[in-house]
């Protein structure tokens, strides 16, 4: 594969910075290597729901590979967040499996999944509003015992506004800046895969573009990114792989380009 990003709609290479290669996941969180042929992270035919409630997911499969951005779209209540929570271990997966780097992690707690290299930014309450920006980043690194300063500098490099506001309470920041704090917090563990649930929720189109550019920049360092997005069209434009979920099931799967070109997907989910 000569160009891992060839399928992506966003051709703006000006945001690529070689220096960000150092954001690449460190070797300290595990020794596992992907099974040959298997995606780096996969929720494989997951069926499950909350507590003893009914199944929300029905044989739902979501995967992201190294160097990729995978995007989950679909109507409200389709189970997008539920699929993310299932991958992260916050849901009872009654059938199916979650595998990370070839290892079955279906039974692991979320904490253990973080240790295995999963970084997750939930849809809501993803920052500590009364803490400063820098304290939020420090909290993100809670599982680490080594020097976190270089990673913090990388996060500030990626999101310069956070450095400017590092001593300010995160709750005082704008919506877009808070999302940067949330993503930065997740990066502090030096994850091997980054999962973002609606990282552009409630921000202006300009801020959305900016956040997408930063996410592409992170993905270019080799860190696989799996994200849920309500801005379906824009998200599929930057997606190597896209999933349309409907009522907890895979309705359409393909490259971002394929889904954008699919008349049925356009009609039902992209406004024609
Ligand atoms: N904690 C919970 N306990 C029980 N049911 C839940 C819980 N969270 C979500 N659900 C149900 O699961 C279904 C899927 O919800 P989910 O939040 O995964 O959808 P979504 O696709 O992320 O929607 P949105 O676009 O609004 O974020 C809904 O029927 C919802 O009511
Ligand atoms: Mg959701």
How would you characterize the overall build of this protein?
The protein is an alpha/beta fold. The protein has a domain at 67-82 and 117-270: P-loop containing nucleotide triphosphate hydrolases (Rossmann fold, 3-Layer(aba) Sandwich). 32% of the residues lie in helices and 21% in strands. It is built from ten helices and ten strands. The strands form two sheets. Strands 6-7-8-3-9-10 form a six-stranded mixed beta sheet, sandwiched between helices. A hairpin with a 7-residue loop joins strand 1 and strand 2 (57-64). Helix 3 runs parallel beside helix 6. The radius of gyration is 18 Å and the shape is globular. Residues 1-22 and 26-32 have low confidence and may be disordered. The chain binds adenosine-5'-triphosphate (ATP) and magnesium ion (MG). Adenosine-5'-triphosphate binds at residues 50, 53, 56, 74, 76-82, 123. Magnesium ion (MG) binds at residues 80-81, 123.
How much is the average pLDDT? 88
How much of the residues is beta strand, in percent? 15-25%
Classified in CATH, the superfamily of the domain at 67-82 and 117-270 is: P-loop containing nucleotide triphosphate hydrolases
Kindly identify the CATH topology of the domain at 67-82 and 117-270.
Rossmann fold
Radius of gyration: 18 Å
State the share of residues found in helices, binned by percent.
25-40%
The major pleated sheet works out as: 6 strands, mixed
Largest sheet, spatial ordering of strands: 6-7-8-3-9-10
- The number of helical segments is 10
Q: What structural class is derived from the secondary structure elements?
A: alpha/beta
Parts with pLDDT < 50 across at least 5 consecutive residues: 1-22, 26-32
H/E series: EEEHEEHEHHHHEHEHEEHH
Identify the overall geometry: globular
CATH class of the domain at 67-82 and 117-270: Alpha Beta
CATH architecture of the domain at 67-82 and 117-270: 3-Layer(aba) Sandwich
Cofactors and ligands: adenosine-5'-triphosphate, magnesium ion
Distance between the termini: 33 Å
